[in-house]
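[[Encoded backbone]]
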Amino acid sequence: MLDLFRRLSKSKAGAFVFAIFIAALALGFVMSDVQNLGLGGGATGDTVAEIGGTKVGSAELRDRVQRAFETARRERPELTIQQFVRQGGVDQVLAQLTDTFALEAFAKQQGIGVSRKMEDAVIAAAPAFRGLNGQFDQSQFEQFLVTQRVSEKQIRADLARDLYLAQLLTPATGGGFVPVSLSLPYASMLLEQRQGRAQFVPASAFRGTAPTDVQLEGYYRANAARYAVLERRVIRYALLRRASFEAVAPTEAEIAAAFQASKSRYAGRETRTISQVVVATEAAARAIAAQVSGGTPIADAARAAGLEAVTLADQSQDAFARATAPGVAQAVFATAQGQVAPPTRSGLGWHVARVDAVTNTAARTLDQVRPELIEQIRREKAATGFQEAVARLEDAVGDGATFDEVVAANLLQAQTTPPLLASGLEPDAAGQPPTEMAAIAKAGFAMEATDDPVVEQLVPEQVAALVKTERVQPAAPKPLAAIRDRVLADYQAERGLAEARRIATAIAERVNGGTALAQAAGAAGVALPAAAPLAGRRGELLRENATANPQLGALFSVRQGRARAVPAADRSGWYVVQLDTVAPGDARGQPALVASTRAQFAPVLGQEYGAQLVRAARAAVGVDVNAAAVARLKSELLGNAPAQ
């Protein structure tokens, strides 16, 4: 519905800019080193932009473009830097950069602040920095800094910028109020009904004679990209599997040490199920304890006092002590099953506790847990052996060893793939590649044949691979002789579609000149099927958009009595759609539809407000872009490569 409303209202909101800032609010950490920043005159020389007195250098923009390209390539491994630049990647990154700095400067002008505590709170809440217990782990954070090759200062600088943006954009984009006076006309528009006719002009009626060899060859050359096999790569790899380390049998000493380390787990233990209620005074506690000892259920006794009892199952004495207090736990674990412990005080108040059940687990001997320990040690040895082997491969590659040298030194088995597409499949192969082969292809397409090998975890902690791109086969069309029938069918289909378009356009022009649709179709010089009735409601475009049903879209894009030619969605021909009648909608009697329309409009207004705020911030702080420096950077990235 949002897209339809945008089309209907001719809105020109900066949706792309808004999307950038919503991504920024997610605090994904840009992780770029903000270099070449300073104060001074306008954007000149190596400076690509100046925002509110802050300069951004060419090296900074290049770095951010490279990071954006690497992110895009993870989704599209076949993407080249030249394609990324030609598709507007540099301009998009520069727009994000200048808008972000402009909003930060504008926020500071308005007195908005970001404290170190705010930064700490976001860092502590980031999932990437949490340990196994779900809490912030300083070592995880430090490891992240190492792997991303950034400092804490750089992270905090980007994080502070994002927090400035959040404080500006969240109120602006989230407060869109849509009055009924605005939503009612659009809701009514969705109820508008139209009727007309659709005259089909099939492409199959205009295939004509077969082309000559020269014509077919010319068509093949002009459409070579259509018949091209995408870039393929031959990749060498050697697998390292954790399973190969699982056959190592533990020694008796290792088994004994593991038993000793886990002795508390195998020792005998007593657990209890305890129902308790906590009250403020000793007198109230003793009164409730007396009622429960006399046979009143503790839940009823607590409820009569305006409180609620809770039940804690399978509590050890240590666990219960941590939940209450050591004195309370001592009293409860000295009480027999079915009895009420003497009321005892903790920092929470006075505890009245009833022992509902006592469970005793016997201690287990080394012989009893031997199979369990052997399996545990095997797993631990396999994990350690696998991690150490991966580390050896990484160290060898880091020291400059070749693929063959690493394979030989580690007794691996090298394998070579056939020419693969980026998906991991061979050309013309169907289905999905095995998970491991897809990961190998992804790694191979992320490097060049001249690059050093890399070590990739194909299945985390299970399978790793040493990967080296052996050969790159550029995208190229298949030989005409091998696909002649396909090219011939495409040639005839395209020629028929072009003729169908010409005929349909001529029919539409005659109708718009005053000729009846049937008479205009009859003058086409070829037998056509009878026109079919066509009707619909504008709201149906939300469920079946104009691309999926171009006839319905055309019905709502022409004036009454007029006609328009549109292609069939399946490229089987063209339609001439004529609008006969229009019945306006009225949503005043449908409050649910009006309310739904208001709800759909709110995000659109939020985008508009966000885009306006960005423009206002840029105007307030001043943004000066050095077009010549940006053009030089694009040229350097393109490297004078031919268009692809």
